[in-house]
Design goal:
By secondary structure, the chain is an all-alpha fold. It contains three helices and no strands. It has helices at residues 3-25, 28-43, 53-76.
């Protein structure tokens, strides 16, 4: 993914992804970290043009949140 594509996706969807993640985490700091992680993962992937970028990004953010919960659960043990 080119930096322009990534920037364009960030500009178009970061605010809604932030709201989605904030609803899940209830913590702005954690939300910022997870949003950054989601776009970092996206930057590392080679993808064809996304037909439904919002859906893809919401799913990616959800997976990042689940991974966060798993890490937190492991730390708690």
């Amino acid at each position: 993914m080119t930096s322009r594509q990534l920037e364009s996706l960030y500009d178009a969807h970061a605010q809604s992804l932030f709201a989605f993640l904030l609803h899940l985490t209830r913590c702005e700091e954690t939300t910022r970290d997870l949003l950054q992680e989601a776009f970092l993962r996206l930057s590392r992937r080679t993808l064809p043009p996304l037909l439904k970028p919002r859906s893809y990004l919401l799913r990616l953010a959800h997976h990042v949140w689940i991974d966060h919960l798993r890490r937190e659960t492991s730390r708690a043990r």
